[in-house]
User: Fold this.
Amino acid sequence: MFSHVHLGSNDVERAKRFYDAIMDALGGAESWKDQDRNRWFWQRDDAFLIVGEPLDKDQAQPGNGVTIGFDVESPEQGDAWHAAGLAAGGTTLEGAPGIRRRGEGGIYLAYLRDPDGNKLCALKLMPEG
Amino acid sequence: MSAMFTHVVLGCNDPEQSAAFYDAIFAALGIVGQRHEASAYYGTPGGGMFMINPPRDGQPATHANGGTIGLAAGDEGAVNAWHAAGLAHGGTDEGAPGRRDQPYAKLYGAYLRDPVGNKLSCFTTNVEEAA
Assistant:
């Protein structure tokens, strides 16, 4: 469904350190800088995360109601993703990471805001029981 | 290796208006939506989910500056249909369909803003080369 997500940043090198840390916790991603515009790419499979300055050169601003969900393989990997984000300038929200019951199954969720305030989550659908 | 993204949630202020917009643009990509209370859902848990909800904090939904959600299309015709469907259902133009090559890929894409102002794009790597 998703080809890419672009997030705005007011300090692109600070964002680079944060996203390197959370991507490393997910097993890594190829990363490179777009030299024409001040922004970084991370690629996994066919999808790209891009973090950089807004095109209009105005302040980057998170949207209210916006969340970007990252795929994690296990709750342990999600916990590592969350810890790496906190250590790299992120903040936690929406309670502690953990499995939330939804109907018959459960969903592992962990939430972070990046240093620019963009809301992120790590998600893993858990088997029933 | 896991995928990059599981899901994206965007805010809405008028769920009917936003759902009508997203029903139309996802239909152009062959994706059917579902409604649950004030939320609309598109896609599948295994293949990526897109959701719209009123924000949980009760404050108005706002769009980001610097934020864009990129959707993948199968071919140029789907990109064209996506853009036209959005304009016909409350979206605004943010970039007409056309070639937008990047150093890493040949791309054909278009841009829209949804009724809240959230910026979206739709791209295909299945570009048609001139004979």
